[in-house]
Predict the 3D structure of the following.
Amino acid sequence: MSENILEVRNVSKSFKEQVVLKNLSFTVKSGETFGLLGPNGAGKTTTMRMIMNILQPDEGEILFQGQPRQRLKGVHFGYLPEERGLYPRARVLDVLVYFGTLNDLAPRKAEVEAIRYLDRLGIIEYTDTRINELSKGIQQKIQFIAAFLHDPDVLILDEPFTGLDPINQSVLQEILEEFKKKNKVLILSTHMMDQAEKMCDHICLINQAQVVIDGSVSNIRKRFREDAYYLEADAPIPFISSLKGIQILEEGKNNYKFVLEEGSVSLAEILKQVEQKTKIRKFEVFEPSLHDIFIRLIQEQTEVKS
Amino acid sequence: MKNIFRVARWEFVSRIKSRSFLFNTFISPFLFTAVITLPLFIFNLQPQITTKLIGLIDLSGQNIKEELQRELNRNYRLDNRSSEYLVMNVAVNNSSSYNRMASKFEEIKSRLDSVSLVYDQIKEQRMEYYKNTRIPNRDYVLRTSYEKLQNTREEKELIEIELSRFKTALDSLYKREAQRMADSLLYTDVLNAYLIFLPDFAKTGIVEYHTKTPGDLREVERFEKILQTIIIKKRILNDQIPRSKLQRWFRPIYLKKYQLLQEGQQEWNFYVQFYGPLIGVFLLFMAIFTAGGYVFSSVLLEKSNRVIEVLLSYVTSSQLMGGKILGLGFLGLVQIFSWFAITGILLSTGIIPADKISYLTMQNALYFLIYFSLGFLFYGAIFVTIGSVSASEYDAQQINQLLRTIAIFPVLLSLLVLANPNAPLIRLLSFIPFLTPSFMIMRIPLSIEPITFDIYGTILLMIVSIGFMIIISGRIFRMSTLMVGKKLTPQEIWTWIKIK
């Protein structure tokens, strides 16, 4: 199966005087979950709107399989915008069939797919209910179905997990995993860093109209590793802070994050001493979370600019 | 292209079953027709249950009552042939002040009578004195009788002056008292109305008509007509024309109106000629604004609930706009064909008399369809623009209301159109695209001569205007639909119009 590639190449976009995106580039490969991250106003929604062909870039281009976005034929996109809404007086199945047919599904096929997804998300009983009679959570599930009902080649979800309960979050994750396996391009935009960390293979962090970092999650985490260690024991071990050549970064009730000063005490020695006092529950090389990296990079960029 | 039809189908299907569409198609036209024609029916078909009592205060001393009653009887009778109007003099016998004055008047009158008698006797006596030359002391007798005659004449003249003064005062009191009495009779609904004839009514032509309902135009018109006849008769009689001729001259006249049409003569009926095109304009207005209103609310709804963003990610803005206009325009056509079908049923069952309404033709139905389509496309494009640039539904509704007012404006000039459908002002206004459909739909059935130039001219102008509006609205729609809750400045809109 050949790999599908979506490329955003040197894209810039301004609204009047305000520069929203400046020379933005990244590449998304099929089979990976791509996370488009950034603080509010970073330009995420504009980027997604340009990928969806709702807006056109002032400069640069967006390519899918090497073909410019505007000239693509027969490639289907699915989109769940952050600001969501449906036709309040329409019936669930009618809305889903309408969105399906707009993406070239035959009405009958759209109906079958809609019912299949409604069943999978546990809301089959609302098939003939009017949208305005449904709760917000159920409306959100219907919007999800509308976004991937037609089995798009590229699926873009803006803040997909907001407002969903944990059970439905995992159902959605499951569906997205399946989607990813079908060699499709999947782009998520989210503020929930733990979700991004769990779901994304590749992230691109944008801030103030520019890419701050772009790469696989594991590489980024490695890059921001501080050579720190994390140790968690059964009981408090206060003596650790008095050991020579150790610098405590964070201290919890039974856990510690620390770094070793160069050429001082060895790691094996410290672990030995701790084990003499209490049992070690967990020990690992500490890798920063995406959340920490995100905050650090944004802060750094803001400081540089100011 | 397929997506245009998909959007059109969605818009059509989701609206055709809506209550508002069914109401506007099947209830509103009947309600409107009822609202404008019911008063007319009520006006013409007022139940003739009882004879109406008309009070009369006659200060002319010309015994108007008989004449008035005669004229009224000649023109207006109830279904059972009895009089529709009964005239009665308003009596003032119960007024003590009037009675007192009247008795004094009578007293002066008797004094005048007795003095006149004495005066006549003296004159007679003097005649005898003249004739009889053998009367002793004839000169003396003649002189003294002359003095007596002089004195009596002087007394008679004084009494006459007094009587005349008293008569004026008595008439004034009579008028006041009679009016007071008539008012109370009017107030208690004994009288339907009362008339006051002043002494010089024949000269001035002024007669007072007092009623609780001066707005009852039918009654007013009837009395004007009758009084016109009476007054003219009086004036003619004053000019020494024999009464026998008058009867013939004043036989009631009825003007039977015919209109010359290309296909021949047809009896002219105000109600058919006026209300028909008016209902036509209303239906056209309804069709344009029902479908146009749906375009408008559809854009507003999709914008306010953010569906527009998803839609624009699957279809282009021109496909979305085109689909809406196509689907809802088709909805408007369904509405019009429903009305054609209803009209057809009413014609075939004879409820609408086809032979009396010359303008119910296939050609005019075609013009109706053409002007609907043009009006809808023109206003539809404007509605798309308003829907997409409005920051809130409230703002949008205000502009919508303004557009409706402009479009219905020709109805205000409907009487002018009826009088002369091809007047220069009306022709000029017909060429303003906002007003074209309404004016043309009134003018086509009313005009007796073909207005081919105006029809083709307005159609051409509308097509150009629609093209222009669609280009502008397309550009604005493309740019503004993603802006939510932000009030746009005219400069921003102008910038978008310029972007290709």
User: Anything to note?
Assistant: The longest strand of chain B covers residues 52-58. The interface with chain A takes residues 2-3, 6-7, 10, 14, 301, 304-307, 309-315, 482, 484 of chain B (CB under 8 Å). Residues 138-187 of chain B form the longest helix (50 residues).
